[in-house]
């Protein structure tokens, strides 16, 4: 049964079931979302460093949260299908995107509760930098896992762009 499941996953991911209702992770969408997250974090890092007051810091925090929260949600949506396929393909150690996305979500929540609460802007900037470092690490991990899966399967490109994968609900291209 495990072999059948593995080959079914490979067939869906390689386009053998184009138009099917099976939900396979869309590696292109996951990668693009992780890259957009990295860019948003870099922008936040620069904007937060320029905040002169806690009120400026809070304004930037609100902008950042509104931009990044949907991205993390999209990654969470795709992470479950990604993990299921990695597991089916016999790579359970690579099936950690779901947990990575939960950790990102938790990091955002913790950051939102602590950010901009200090009157000393140096402390706020230190917290901003630590948060941005963690989010960059998470985004890089997502991109690494996508690359890992993209190099599996026949021809080294099981989930390459145009492979005919059914995109996850809520994922954007």
Quick tags:
173 residues, mainly alpha, 0% strand, disordered N terminus
Tell me what you see in this structure.
With 173 residues, the protein is an all-alpha fold. Helices cover 68% and strands 0% of the residues. It has 5 helices and no strands. The protein has helices at 2-13, 27-49, 54-88, 97-114, 121-150. α2 runs antiparallel to α3 and α3 runs antiparallel to α4 (97-114). The longest helix has 35 residues, at 54-88. The chain is elongated. It starts with a helix and ends in a 23-residue tail after the last helix. The relative contact order is 0.22.
Fraction in beta strands: under 5%
Outline the low-pLDDT stretches: 1-23, 154-173
Helical/strand content category: mainly alpha
Please report the number of helical segments.
5
Helix content: 55-70%
Mean pLDDT: 77
Principal-axes shape call: elongated
Sheet bearing the most strands, described?
none
Number of strands: 0
**Rg over alpha carbons:** 18 Å
Q: H/E series, N to C?
A: HHHHH
What's the end-to-end separation, in Å? 33 Å
Fold blueprint:
Layout: H1 2-13, H2 27-49, H3 54-88, H4 97-114, H5 121-150
Helix pairs in contact: 2-3, 2-5, 3-4, 4-5
In a few lines, what is going on in this structure?
By secondary structure, the protein is mostly helical. It has five helices and no strands.
